[in-house]
Amino acid sequence: MINKNSPVPIYHQLEEYIKQQIETGILREEAVIPSEREFAEVFQISRMTVRQAINNLVLEGYLTRQKGKGTFVSKKKVEQELQGMTSFTEDMLSRGMNPSSTLLSFQIIPADKNTALDLKIEDNDSVYKIKRIRLADGAPMALETAYIPVEIVPGLTEENSNLSLYQYIEQHLSLSISEATQEIEASIADSDDAETLEINIGDPILLIQRISYLQDGIPFELVKSTFRADRYRFVHTMKR
Amino acid sequence: MINKNSPVPIYHQLEEYIKQQIETGILREEAVIPSEREFAEVFQISRMTVRQAINNLVLEGYLTRQKGKGTFVSKKKVEQELQGMTSFTEDMLSRGMNPSSTLLSFQIIPADKNTALDLKIEDNDSVYKIKRIRLADGAPMALETAYIPVEIVPGLTEENSNLSLYQYIEQHLSLSISEATQEIEASIADSDDAETLEINIGDPILLIQRISYLQDGIPFELVKSTFRADRYRFVHTMKR
DNA sequence: GTGGAATAGTTGTCTATACCAGTTATATAT
DNA sequence: ATATATAACTGGTATAGACAACTATTCCAC
User: Fold this and answer.
1) Which of chain A's residues have a Cβ under 8 Å away from the Cβ of B79?
2) What is the CATH number of domain B78-235?
3) Contacts by B15-21 with C-beta closer than 8 Å and gap 24+?
4) Which nucleotides in chain C lie closer than 7 A to a protein CB?
5) The complex's ipTM?
6) In chain A, where do the E strands start and end?
7) Test mutation, A184, A203, A221, A225, chain B, max B CBs within 10 A
8) What is the pLDDT along chain B (240 residues), one digit of tens a residue?
9) How far apart are CA B122 and CA B112, in angstroms?
10) Is B9's CB less than 7 Å from nucleic acid strand C?
11) N or C: lower Cβ tally within 10 Å for chain B?
């Protein structure tokens, strides 16, 4: 499970290992995880390295420590993610609705000037352009257009683009998403919007543009969404 | 400066020391701080201990590291606050605009059912109801109505209500604001909105409702704002 | 039973050291 | 002067070991 010769740092390998154990349910909510010395012994690594992995998971909210007792799996990652970057799917699930989507188009195109600027790439660099209608409980909720640099996420196809992009990036490319910016504005539907969202021209709509960044501040996704204002309201919690 | 016999951990002492250097301006924004090895040498402590202190300050946003170059003082605690709870005034200032406001009314009224629910008080408990027009560079930007429980912030008057409520609460009542939730939706202007915001009926508007909480999760302010969509766009950064 | 000591487990703090991987200044060769 | 190695810095990762602080249990004396 741990490869000492991998260029991936050991502590990061251990993080992923423990995360996986949590997500697959092998380590359950509220349960104690093995002690630091035990991890060190089992994987033949130093306790300080184990601590580095566990520290990060504590900071990310996966675990909590209790001096003298042990380290425990936190309950509900969901609530923490809610305070920030939720995908449409997660967002709808958290509202008790059933999300689905219809793929309208999947293209690889050269980036225009504005898209290139937002994604910090050169003009005409290749990007995926993926258009979807997002549905909640079967009814149209939003029209979404995503732009993703091909260079960063190669091998995206019409088939696998339906899976969670975030999971793909974190697990297969072992990159992690650190930050996102959103811009939200109000507008009114034009004829195109009205048709796809099944509303009337002049009805209010919510435009949301999100840019998601990797650890190093590299943008990897630009999503422009048009929501039906009568069905969707953006909810958001800030801490500190 | 560092006391090895103190019950306070060394890394924490060092954190406070560095923080102080930053806050007193001895270490300036963007400047390099001494290297880890230098701290270790000067204070005769281990480099790992220095790293523990610096790690924490990095996580708290005081410092940023750059491999091969050094560790730098982050600029502006303000910007971090911007990622979250900004008042209209701060928001506009950060956009390079000149904010002002016109008080429309200042009342103490019994809370209606919904307001009471949001503020977690009883129906008919007294609340301040403060209506303002918010201007940016002299032009109407938003219509704002704030509801504040009298019990939590007694002594608010038409005069001092113009000052920063947040500062007042943090400094005079020594309470601290920990969290806020926002709900954002799109709508279209009715005749009232159109008149106060100097736009046309049917123009798009952005409705923002914010509830701010004290440390203990006690709501102390409910603000409902109506923004001109042609002039205002909600911008928001999420981390992690 | 109650209190206290001993014990074995946990995380927390700290040291000393080593090597790796970027960055920058400096010396050297051309 | 201009390249180009090289050395000397930086933070990043990892080791091994030590003691402190805290928790839980067990056992024993009272």
Assistant:
1) none
2) 3.40.1410.10
3) B15/B53, B15/B56, B15/B57, B18/B53, B18/B54, B18/B57, B18/B62, B18/B63, B19/B57, B19/B62
4) 9-18, 21-24
5) 0.61
6) 63-66, 70-73, 99-110, 126-136, 139-149, 177-188, 204-214, 219-228, 234-239
7) A184
8) 788 888 889 999 999 999 999 989 899 888 899 999 999 999 999 999 999 999 999 888 889 999 999 999 987 644 444 345 567 887 888 788 998 889 999 999 999 999 999 999 999 999 999 999 999 999 999 999 999 999 888 878 877 666 666 666 665 666 666 678 889 999 999 999 999 999 999 999 999 999 988 866 789 899 999 999 999 999 887 765
9) 9
10) yes
11) N
Of the partner residues A182, A183, A238, the one whose CB lies closest to the CB of residue B85: A238
A69 C-beta less than 7 Å away from strand D? yes
CB A238 within 8 A of CB B84: yes
- Check for a shared fold between B10-73 and B78-235: no
**CATH topology classification for B10-73:** Arc Repressor Mutant, subunit A (1.10.10)
How many beta-carbon pairs below 8 A join chains A and B?
Answer: 106
Domain ranges in chain A?
Answer: 10-73, 78-235
